[in-house]
């Protein structure tokens, strides 16, 4: 478990951004966050809180969904990036692993992985070395490397999506809902791999996750979003022990486990947003 991350350099800075879809729907309402180099930063919150929109604002994938950043600024290594196209951002070392484990279903597992190196000007030997690195983290992918990706399991496809991102040799990975649709044992396995990649390869992660419990055990720092706003942030260890987070996101209170049906959302908003 991770409680402290390197804080000497901020890679990504999101400063008071607003995002609007279709020119009328305000989704993000002044979101600010920073991602330190070498850390795992978690964006937490329920469905519709604005986590995925925040990641897409950073990776510049909003325009394909008729969304745009209308206020605020996003910088990476001090440079404004919100006007770059997604491909240019990938070349700068920032890549997003989309929610839903997108892969090229008709290609084999290994062919999918090789597409991750497409943007690089690397030698065949370097790419082969990176492929073996990916297989070290994901031995299951090596076993299935000749299988058609569309016939692999959900867990294998999540591994494939993450492995393909690693083939681009990224500095920062934006990871969207890695636990979605996976059994608890597989979720633990995926997060353990994220931790290992972070520690061994120095890859920085900004991950969006509804599973607050597991995310706070592996992240260094967390931001909790509600209705397009950051309502709380802090070191993961502190958030794990915060009474509000325990009650509303971890399902625990001082009296023990509490059903979400017993929690009235207006109490949460009143306490955090007042």
Automatic annotation (TrEMBL):
Q: Which GO biological process categories is it annotated with?
A: L-amino acid transport
Question: Which residues are in the ABC transporter domain?
Answer: 12-252
- Give yes or no: UniProt keyword Metal-binding: no
Q: Does the keyword Lipid metabolism apply?
A: no
Checking Pfam families in the record gives:
ABC_tran
Q: Which UniProt keywords apply?
A: Amino-acid transport, ATP-binding, Nucleotide-binding, Transport
Q: Name one GO molecular function term.
A: ATP binding
* Family as reported in the entry's similarity comment: Belongs to the ABC transporter superfamily.
Q: Which PANTHER family does its entry note?
A: ABC TRANSPORTER SUBSTRATE-BINDING PROTEIN, HIGH-AFFINITY BRANCHED-CHAIN AMINO ACID TRANSPORT ATP-BINDING PROTEIN LIVF
The protein's name in its UniProt record: ABC transporter ATP-binding protein
